Amino acid sequence: MNYSQRLIDHFRNPRNAGMMRDPDGVGEGNFDGCGDLARFSLKVVDGRVSDVRFQTYGCGPTIAASSAGSELAIGRPVSELLALSEQQVTAAVDGLPDERLHAAQVVAGAIRAAARDYLARRNTQNRSEVRPHV
Amino acid sequence: MNRRVYLDHNASTQVHPEVVAAMLPYFGERFGNPSSVHAFGQEAREGLEIAREQISHFLGVGKDEVIFTSGGTESDNLAVKGVAWARGTGHIITSEIEHHAVLRTCQFLEGQGFAVTYLPVDGEGLVDPDDVRRAIRPDTILITIMHANSEVGTVQPVEAIGPIARERGIPFHVDGVQTFGKIPIDLDRFRIDLLSFSSHKIYGPKGVAGLYVRKGTKMVAVQHGGEHERRRRAGTENVPAIVGFGKAVEIRAREMGAEALRLTALRNKLWAGIGARVPEVRLNGHPTRRLPGTLNMCFRNVESESIVLGLDLKGVGVSAGSACTSGNVEPSYVLVAMGVPLDWAMGSVRATLGRENTEEDIDYVLEVLPPLVERIRSLSPTAVS
Q1: ipTM
Q2: Same domain, B198 and B299
C-alpha cells in the first residue's frame, strides 16, 4: 500500500492519543463496513478548541487520520468543526488511497459529532442556568 | 537501517540462486519454441523434458501424467472444470475453505447446472472424512479438497478422503499448492487422481505450475489451440520458467526434510515468544497437523492491517487475515468457517517462514511485535484497560 510520508509519520507517532478527563464534548465516528471506530474528546475555551484526545480502533490510515484530525481541530472555533469535511482530513495526511477514504470519513464524523456534543451540552447548561429566573 | 525479515512465504518465495542459473540459458541461446523441429526448438524441448522428468520423478509418476500450466489457479481450473465438463453434469464435493481458484470455479459451475456441496470444517480447520462420505451422491463426479490451507496451514486428512473417493470410483483432486515440496505427498497411498502444484511457493519462478492427472482420469481441455501437453493444455510452454520449476523441485527433494524440521522449530519459537509477551492472542489452525512454516494468530481488539503496516515499517513482511477493500473489511472466510469470533478474526496475522529465515529473524520479530501490538491497543477505545 502506498501511503504518504505524512500519514506514516502520524501512524508511527500519533499526536493527542488517549483519554480526557471532564471533556466539554465527545463524539464518535464509525464505519460499518469495517468496524473502524474513532472517539474524539474536546476541551473548549471561549468557543475555540484548546485540547483534543482521540481513541481509535482501525487500520493504519484510520489511526493516522485520527492523529492528523486532532491537530486540525486544536485552536479552531467549534463552529468551524461542525462543517469539517472528509477532504480536509484527507488533505491533512497528504491524501489517502481510494479504498482507504473511509479513514477520513470516520475521523471527520467523530470530530463533527464532538463539536455538536459540545454545543448541545452548552445549550443544556445555559437553559439550566437561566431556568431559576424564569 | 532496519533489518529486513520476510515472513510471507505462503504468498511467494525468493527464487533459489541455482534455479536462476538453470533458467538463464533458456532466455539466451536455448530460446527456441519446443514445438519446432529444428535444433533451436529441440534444445528448448530438451529443457522442458528434463523438467518434466525432475518433477515426475519427485512425484513418483509417469512423465505423461504431468501437465505444465501458468499457475496454481490455472491448474485448479483445469482440474475442476476439466473433470466436470468431461461428464457434462453432476455433483461436486469441496470444502468451505478451499482457495478461491477452486471455490469460485465451483460457484461458476453451479451457474452451469452442476450441484456443489461445500463441506464445513472444525475449529482447527479440518474436514471430517465422514462428512465427505455422507455427502457422496449417485451423481457425484468429483471430490476436490486442498492438502493444506494457505492461511492457517491446517493439513487435511487427504489420506483418509482419497480411499473414500476411490472406493466409489469418484475422481479425487487435491490442491497441493501449499504442500508440494514442503511435506510428503504420496499420490498412490492418498489415492489422489489430480494434484495441483506450483513453482513460486518453493523457490521457483512465478507463472508456472503443474497438474498431475492420473492415467485414465477423464478430463477435457479448458484452453484450446495447438498440440501442446498432449492436447490437454494448448499454448507454447513457458520454457525458462518450466526449467526453473524442475530445478526448484530437484532442490526440494534434497532440502525439504531438514527444512521442515527447522521451520517447525522456528515457528514454534515464534509462537511461544509471542504467547509469552503479548496478552489476548490465539493460534489459528491445527496445533500439529499444520504446514511447517505457517503461524496464523489473532490479536484481540486490534485491526490486523495496522499490525501489518507497523511491522512493515520495521522491515518485517507478514500478511493480514482480514482484507480491507473499498472500506469493507472482510474477515477471512477461512477463519469465519472455523468459527473464530469476529472480534478476534479482525486481528488475524499470518507469518509464514522459509529457507532464508534464521533464529535472529525470529528474535527480531519478538523484539518489535509486542510493543507494536501494545501501542496499537493503547490507542483503541475497545481495548481493556
Answers
A1: 0.82
A2: no
Amino acid occupying residue A10:
H
Per-residue pLDDT of chain B (385 residues; tens, 9 = 90+): 579 999 999 999 999 999 999 999 999 999 999 999 999 999 999 999 999 999 999 999 999 999 999 999 999 999 999 999 999 999 999 999 999 999 999 999 999 999 999 999 999 999 999 999 999 999 999 999 999 999 999 999 999 999 999 999 999 999 999 999 999 999 999 999 999 999 999 999 999 999 999 999 999 999 999 999 999 999 999 999 999 999 999 999 999 999 999 999 999 999 999 999 999 999 999 999 999 999 999 999 899 999 999 999 999 999 987 666 555 667 899 999 999 998 899 899 999 999 999 999 999 999 999 999 999 999 998 754 4
Q: Which of A55, A57, A101 minimises the CB distance to B327?
A: A101
Contact B378 A100 (CB under 8 A): no
The structural domains of chain A, ordered by start, are 5-133 (3.90.1010.10)
Annotated catalytic residue within B261, B313, B323, B324: B324
B155 alpha carbon, distance to own chain's centre: 11
Specify whether the backbone of B153 is left (phi greater than 0), alpha (psi in -120 to 50) or beta: left
Is B244 in the same domain as B318? no
Chain B contact set for A34 (CB, 8 A)? 303, 324, 327-329
* Residue B268 domain boundaries: 5-12+256-379
Q: How many domains are contained in chain B?
A: 2
Written as one string, the DSSP assignment of B332-371 is PHHHHHTT--HHHHTTEEEEE--TT--HHHHHHHHHHHHH
Q: Test B329 with A57 for CB contact under 8 angstroms.
A: no
